Amino acid sequence: MQLRAAWFLLALVGCAMDVPQDPPTVTHSADTLIERLPDAIATFRRGGTTPVDDPAGAGSEMAYATANRAIAGYIQVLRREPPLDPDAAEQELARFVADNTSGTPMHRRLRQRALVGVPAEQPVLRCAELEGTFGRQAVESLACVGVFGGQLVRLRVSHIRREGRMAEARGFAEGVAATLR
Length: 181
Fold this sequence. Notes:
By secondary structure, the protein is α+β, with helices and mostly antiparallel strands. Helix content is 29%, strand content 41%. It has 4 helices and 8 strands; from the N terminus they run ααββββαββββα. The longest helix is centred in the N-terminal third of the chain and has 16 residues, at 2-17. It is globular, with a radius of gyration of 21 Å. It starts with a helix and ends with a helix.
C-alpha cells in the first residue's frame, strides 16, 4: 500500500511538471547587451563607442563599418526603466524613421521605401528601408529597432545605392538580432 502511494505521489509530481507555463520575461541591463556585441558582425567591424544622450534615455553607440567603409552605421543600446515590452518596437521604429527622414538639412533627403522584419521568418527587429540622396549621391539606409531584455536597441546602416548592398545591410541586422536574442 505504501509503495502504491509513493508511485501515486510521483505520478502527481510528474503531471505537475508537465503543465506548460508562460516563459519568464528576461530583462538585461543595457551594459549586458553592449558586452554581447562582438568586434565583427558579418562583414562589419566594430569601431569606437560613444555615449548617447537620447531624450528617452541614456545609452551607448557602437560604430560598425565594412572593411572598405562602403557600408557604415551604428548600433545604439538605450537604457529603459522600467523595461520596455517587445511590442514597443513598432512605435519606436516610427519615431526613429521620423527622426531620420524629417527635419534634415536640404542636402540630405531620405524617405521610407519599405517596412521589413529581421530575420524575415521570426522578426525581432522592425526595420525600414530608406532611400534618397546625400547631396547628389543616391543612397540607401536600413533603420531598425528592437527590444532585447527590456532595453531599446536601434541600428542604422547607410551606403551609396549599389546592387547587393542592402542585402549586406540586412545580413548585418540579422547578425545583430542573433547576437542579442
